[in-house]
Amino acid sequence: MLIDWFTVGAQVLNFLILVWLMKRFLYKPILNAIDAREKRIAKELADADATTAEARKEREEFQQKNDQFDQQRAALLSKAKDEAKTERQRLLDEARKAADVLSAKRQESLANDARNLNRAITRRTQDEVFAIARKTLTDLATTSLEERIGEVFTRRLRELNGEAKHVLAEALKTAAEPALVRSAFDLPTDQRAAIQVALNETFSAEIRVRFETAPDLVSGIELTTNGQKVAWSIADYLASLEQGVGELLKAKDNPKVEEAKPSSQDQ
Amino acid sequence: MRLSPDEIIFWQSGFFKLNATIVFTWALMLVLAVGAKLITCKLTTEHKRSRWQNLLEIVVTLIAKQIEEVGLAHPKKYLGFLGTLFLFVAAASLCTVIPGYEPPTGSLSTTTALALCVMVAVPLFGIAEQGVGNYFKSYIQPTFIMLPFNVISEISRTLALAVRLFGNMMSGAMIIGILLTITPFIFPIVMTALGLLTGMVQAYIFFILATVYIAAATRTREPKPEHALIT
């Protein structure tokens, strides 16, 4: 008999014990280890997915912020450009105004200079003319300039005629105050007498006269009464001289002003 | 000529005896249990693990996969019994390379014990899965006339399991024994290698047949889908 029943029973028992041992020492620990690892891997994968999702979300947020930043930057840049343009325009306007003011001041200063120069030239010319005339007259006829001026004035008085003489005579007669004779220099007594005589003879009456010295008359004599005036002075000559000099200066100044204008625009 | 290691008796006291089959079985049990314990006491769940752990994981997952492929939905439930069957038979065959070793599966007593275990386990798993009524109802399906045939089939397949494994293992040992007397060199080595192969094949056959029986017993009869009738 090949089957030994005791051995069969013992082997069944042995096999059952082996099943228990294998379960206890092999399958359970191995399966647990595999499960734990699978769980860990699944968790890692889930974590990786979560991280990826988070990274994607953060990237989108960053992209959005970047876009916003770009927009804000563009807006700020545009605003800054506008402000800079306005500021530039304002500065240009200010500079233009300042240039205009400066130019006006300069022109005014030039005009003042011209005026002062004219005045100086006039005065100098007057002095020179007087000096020359005085010297010439003294040299030629031993006559002073003042004497000659007096003579010229008396001659002009005597030469008055027509409407002018009549109007003046009326004025002299009706004047409440004595007629005023103004001269740039002190008239000598004989000259005063000569003028008084000439007046009396010309208007055939006793004319009351008051003499006065007025340096601004510019070497001349004038008779004023009741709004009428008879005068002789070199002021007329000087006025024409001044006019000539003024025109000359203006001709000189104009190119400068024209040159100065573009430069003010450049500022 | 010795046909079974049962015949080598180390100690006997009446009905109780200690023969080579039991001793070598204990030795196998010791090797398997201690080996498993030594390896699994240093298990790790990290990615990097020892080669032994890898080997055991491969073996266990392969067995579980095979069980699943046969048709058992929850292989972990059957892994203890079926896996141990395979490992015991495989280990018993592999150890034939050790000189002086007698495979316990070369004893009809052992194979009968294993087959009896399968014969008992099949209805136990079937009842656990389907319930007592449903399981025993399967014996009279499609008609009660089938009952004796089903019972005979249960017994005969158990007998077939036991005799098939015994025959193969015993013949392997016999062939090597005979060849050693005829051609003492080289050829027995080739036959030993062949014996390892047939041993592994037998282990796989024993395991897969047991799995198939359990799968057949645990499978609940599902009503045929309607569309199948239409087509």
Kindly describe this structure.
The complex is a heterodimer of chains A (267) and B (231). With 267 residues, chain A is an alpha+beta fold. Chain A is built from five helices and four strands. In chain A, strands 2-1-3-4 form a four-stranded mixed beta sheet. In chain A, strand 3 and strand 4 (228-233) form a beta hairpin. In chain A, helix 2 (145-159) packs parallel to helix 4 (189-203). The relative contact order of chain A is 0.08. With 231 residues, chain B is mainly α. Chain B contains eight helices and two strands, in the order ββαααααααα. Chain B has a two-stranded antiparallel sheet. In chain B, strand 1 and strand 2 (16-19) form a beta hairpin. The chains are: A alpha+beta (267), B mainly alpha (231). Chain A binds chain B through residues 2-12, 14-19, 21-23, 25-27, 29-34, 36-37, 40, and chain B through 3-4, 6, 15-17, 19, 21-22, 25-26, 29, 32-33, 36-37, 40, 43-47, 53, 56-57, 60-61, 76, 79-81, 83-84, 87-88, 104, 107-110, 112-114, 116-117, 166.
Question: How would you summarize this macromolecular structure in one to three sentences?
Answer:
With 267 residues, chain A is α+β, with helices and mostly antiparallel strands. Chain A has helices at 5-141, 145-159, 162-174, 189-203, 235-266; strands at 179-183, 209-213, 220-225, 228-233.
Which short descriptors sum up this protein?
A: 267 residues; alpha+beta; Dihydrodipicolinate Reductase, domain 2; 4 strands; 79% helix; disordered C terminus; B: 231 residues; mainly alpha; two-stranded antiparallel sheet; 4% strand; globular
Number of helices of chain A: 5
Q: In this structure, how is the largest beta sheet of chain B organized?
A: 2 strands, antiparallel
Number of helices of chain B: 8
Order of helices and strands of chain B: EEHHHHHHHH
Q: Give the overall shape of chain B, derived from the CA principal axes.
A: globular
Low-confidence stretches of chain A: 257-267
pLDDT < 50 runs, ≥5 residues of chain B? 223-231
Estimated helix fraction of chain A = over 70%
For the biggest β-sheet of chain A, the strand order reads 2-1-3-4
Order of helices and strands of chain A: HHHEHEEEH
β-strand amount of chain A: 5-15%
Question: Which two protein chains have the largest interface (Cβ within 8 Å of the partner's Cβ), and how many residues from each?
Answer: A-B, 32 and 46 residues
Termini separation of chain B comes to 63 Å
CATH topology of the domain at 144-233 in chain A: Dihydrodipicolinate Reductase, domain 2
User: For the residues shown, what is the average pLDDT of chain A?
Assistant: 82
Task: Tell me the radius of gyration of chain A.
Answer: 61 Å
